[in-house]
Specification:
227 residues; alpha/beta; 6-stranded parallel sheet; 40% helix
């Protein structure tokens, strides 16, 4: 049975999928068998036959080079670029926790290290009408620790610390932070990271710059984050 880690973010478009792809690529290049999982994926395009394309999953698959099928990666795929609870309200097929956990278990049976990506920020509702399911519920049920992805730029101190405090109050374990859109020697980016570390007590696991194709973290440290 494989080990897992949950990748959450301070909000939408901070680069969770990009970072997740680099994490999985790093593990694969070091001779292990990684897998990807996302409970619900919104904002996807359709094939000519009307089939939805799970865009995040496909991107991760292509950038990492893993052989895992996209069908295994995400049980709930929606067209509307809304929170999954609203997309499913419009399209049907609402998220059921039992389905999510069953699909995750099947992935764990096939792959050594499974990186689970969240939808939006930590408070993103996954289902609301038929059941009350949030990302925190999924993390709790999967019994996963977390990596927090944040933008390195302006405003990140506030968003990182608020996310950290919420997760801490929910007794969620954050292993560390990865800062995306990082610019080396940028005084604000450097200070943002230092202040986030000071105000949360969390370590910075890696910085990711635009166009990076490798994650600057030791492989032994990376796989030690999984449980």
């Amino acid at each position: 049975m494989g080990k897992g880690i949950f990748v959450t973010g301070t909000g939408t478009d901070v680069g969770k999928t990009y970072v997740t792809g680099l994490i999985i690529k790093k593990i694969k290049e070091n001779g292990m068998t990684p897998g990807y999982f996302k409970a619900a994926m919104s904002g996807n395009e359709r094939e000519e036959d009307g089939t939805l394309i799970p865009g995040d999953a496909l991107w991760v698959k292509n950038v990492s080079g893993i052989s895992q099928s996209v069908e295994e990666m995400c049980p709930y795929v929606y067209e509307h670029a809304y929170s999954p609870h609203l997309a499913s309200r419009l399209e049907g097929n609402h998220v059921e926790m039992a389905v999510v956990l069953d699909n995750y278990r099947k992935v764990k049976e096939k792959y050594d290290y499974i990186t689970v990506e969240g939808s939006g920020g930590i408070l993103c509702p996954i289902c609301f009408d038929e059941a009350r399911i949030g990302l925190t519920d999924i993390i709790d049920e999967m019994e996963l620790d977390c990596i927090l992805v944040a933008d390195a730029g302006l405003g990140t101190i506030n968003s990182v610390v608020l996310t950290y405090e919420y997760m801490k109050n929910r007794n969620m374990n954050i292993k560390g932070m990865i800062f995306n859109h990082y610019i080396a020697d940028n005084i604000m980016h450097e200070d943002n990271i230092r202040m986030c570390e000071y105000m949360t007590g969390l370590p910075t696991l890696a910085e990711v710059s635009m166009g990076d194709v490798d994650l600057n973290i030791d492989i032994a440290e990376l796989i030690s984050l999984y449980r």
